[in-house]
Amino acid sequence: MYAKFKISADLDLFREVEKKEKYLESSKEFYERNKVEIRKGLENYLSPDGRMNMKELEDDWFPNIKADIFLSHSHQDEEKAKLLAFFLKEKFGLTTFVDSMVWKNVIDLLKKIDEKYNKIEGTSSYSYKGSTWAAANVYLILMIALVKMIDKCECAIFMDTPNSLEISNSSEEEFTGSPWIYSEIEILNRIQQKKSTREKEIGMENIFDESFNPRYNIQLKDFKEIDNEIFSKWLSTSEEKNSVLNPKKSLDILYEIMENKKLY
């Protein structure tokens, strides 16, 4: 992880209806092609002694995909996340890992485990103890997978929207109601920043509908904002330098723009 940014909900890409309509269908198709879909039965992960091989399960359900950008967002902003990922790929050649690509696997995986191991015979209910233990293990695997992905991506983008962030009127502190966003921001704030080893070529959710509504304090002071001006300049400069669809050059241009604005 080399750099981290935040993108405002007011970005023209999201706000302009015409532009959104232009890309929305294509972004959905792009997301469907790239999302992680697993259909293996749990029996594929059982060792001879009947215990589940969690390493193989992690590799299949939460694979370490090669990506340039890690995108953190609220599940309510999934359409915007798809739109941004598609736009970054189309205009800059950047591959974006959208975190909801693996969030949804959690529900599917837990359902499979509960059906196989925790179903109370003769009912449609599951064992509370068994389900809780399964959830603890699966969430642990998910967090490890996210740490690996964050560490491997060159930069991260947080989608700063009213769905993902709330600001206290009294203290101006920033909060989120999503444990997933909280976890990802904490990881991003604590993971060691890596210097880019490549040569520069210019002169980087809570998916559950629950009544329990926690609030987590998060720190975004080190996330540099990509606003409309920066985003537009990034796109135009990439086009001028013929760096469109060149991921590394595109990111270097973004870093240089931030440096020149004394924001990065």
From TrEMBL:
Which InterPro entries does UniProt cross-reference here?
Toll_tir_struct_dom_sf
Protein name as annotated = TIR domain-containing protein
